[in-house]
């Protein structure tokens, strides 16, 4: 998808994706919620805690974002932040199919200085098939992630 200059592209989820490395999966905001692609200010429309002009996947209002992978992975992680200033708690949960591998919460702030928190998980072998990011705090526009780091 392309983002028009100074604009956003909204769509329903779940939506399929394919990484540059050929890893297939789906991403879902909440329970079949909507999401949008935006660009971090300035020149973009999202006022989060990312580098200027970063391309972001933003939940419209959902406090949960799920990434499902067709191929088990060894490592998954991304930066995330809310669209407004203030403190928040972010959490990642990693699964191998329906088995919970671990839960990792972190408290942080959105200060608009490219220090969005990075939350990731790593397994000793490629067994991660799902990660769930949960966000609680002052996110009037949901929360955003940028590029997702993966390792097979």
What does this structure look like?
There is one protein chain. With 152 residues, this protein is an all-beta fold. It has one domain (9-151): Jelly Rolls. 0% of the residues lie in helices and 60% in strands. The protein has no helices and 12 strands. It has strands spanning 9-12, 15-18, 24-29, 34-39, 55-59, 64-73, 75-82, 86-96, 99-110, 117-122, 128-137, 143-151. The strands form 2 sheets. It has a 6-stranded antiparallel β-sheet with strand order 1-4-5-12-7-10, with no helix packed on it. It has a 6-stranded antiparallel β-sheet with strand order 2-3-6-11-8-9, with no helix packed on it. Strand 8 and strand 9 form a beta hairpin. The radius of gyration is 15 Å and the shape is globular. The two termini are 25 Å apart.
- Secondary-structure-based class equals mainly beta
Major beta sheet summary: 6 strands, antiparallel
Helix content: under 10%
Basic shape: globular
Draw up the topology in text:
Blueprint: E1 9-12, E2 15-18, E3 24-29, E4 34-39, E5 55-59, E6 64-73, E7 75-82, E8 86-96, E9 99-110, E10 117-122, E11 128-137, E12 143-151
Summary of the model, kept short:
The protein has 152 residues and is mainly beta. It contains no helices and twelve strands.
